[in-house]
């Protein structure tokens, strides 16, 4: 019924977006500004042995090994208790920042992946630390597994007043779900848990879900059943414990989210990193008068590139070859800096069926689930890479396009509501590239350029 992969791999393969430089932007939605830095996404084993140099940044899209499914066991009282703990020191105090020749860089684990940051220009060390703290702050909002996160609380209670960032992310996810006819759906979390993707540790045991269990999980799906409401504070169970209003204030109107079905839960992993990339871009734009010239940030499968390198060299983005090791590319995009002091961002996100697996009865089952069937999606695409200025959109669409398959993905690019560029890798390793990338694309593989 769906594609199976024999477990002949020694480690779980994960998505790689290799960056041979940095990047810039294109008018009306996408563009091209690059350099000679390489961002790869590797396995956890490779990460442990990797080092960071000026020309090689390595990131991983691997889920941390100690995650588990504990949502059902945590009560609202426990969450409230955690939120009232003493303030912790800034997250950036726990990371090492390296400086060299007017730039600063750091690598650290967050968002269940290895994060890589490199910033060029004045005050770059301070900016790297600010980005790290922003990432940790956003993880505390959008994480599915962190028991102190806003999303965890919402998934546990089914109703909660929410911050603007959680509301914005879920609102965008709902719209993209509508626009992609449900091929992107953040309410897949019951299926994610059912298949065991919340625990990818080496000693985790997985079993094939029954058709009855899949049917029950499917009944909980539907982004249209995420209701965004404005209600008096007294009607939100967390309005006082989370400090949205003072005790006794029952009338102030607050926005929040209520699930229409008991047992619904949202997973923002296919849009959250892109949204965080957008927040990082906003931070960098707010600091451009401080002498910043550019930055490259890898958040696992999502990459944010802002501005240009001081020497004017190209940014480059390599798309991983699904057949090879993490540092092998099947295609490369090279971007020329075109915007001078402008720190306009570009976002690149890749989703692939070779990224993450669970192993069941000596087969690997990939993690991109079809919201219509409840099974790993049957698709003729190995990966989809999306380029646009909107990181959340790039993140979400890369997953949606894989679920659509090649023909529907091309039709969506031609006739859909969004302005973006894409590279599709077919299951025969043929490449399908939109016309806007023609002048910056290179590959030795068979390539078809797509026009509108």
Distance between the termini: 33 Å
What form results from the Cα inertia axes?
Answer: globular
User: Could you tell me the strand content as a percent range?
Assistant: 25-35%
* Strand runs, count: 22
Q: Determine the mean pLDDT.
A: 81
Question: Reading side by side through the largest sheet, how are the strands ordered?
Answer: 5-6-7-11-12-15-18-19-20-22
Q: Taking Cα atoms only, what radius of gyration do you get, to the nearest Å?
A: 21 Å
DSSP helix fraction: 10-25%
| Count of DSSP H/I helices | 10
Low-confidence stretches: 1-84
Structural class: alpha+beta
Largest sheet: 10 strands, mixed
Structure, described:
With 452 residues, the chain is of the alpha+beta class. It contains ten helices and 22 strands. The longest helix is centred in the first third of the chain and has 19 residues, at 124-142. Strand 6 (103-110) and strand 7 (113-121) form a beta hairpin. The chain has helices spanning 44-49, 76-83, 124-142, 150-157, 164-179, 189-195, 211-218, 272-286, 391-404, 406-415; strands spanning 5-6, 17-18, 38-41, 56-59, 98-100, 103-110, 113-121, 159-161, 226-232, 253-259, 292-299, 302-307, 315-320, 329-335, 345-352, 357-360, 363-366, 381-388, 421-426, 431-434, 441-442, 447-450. The model is unreliable at 1-84 (pLDDT under 50). Helix 3 (124-142) runs antiparallel to helix 8 (272-286) and helix 8 (272-286) packs antiparallel against helix 9 (391-404). It starts with a strand and ends with a strand. The strands form five sheets. The chain has a ten-stranded mixed β-sheet with strand order 5-6-7-11-12-15-18-19-20-22, with helices on one face.
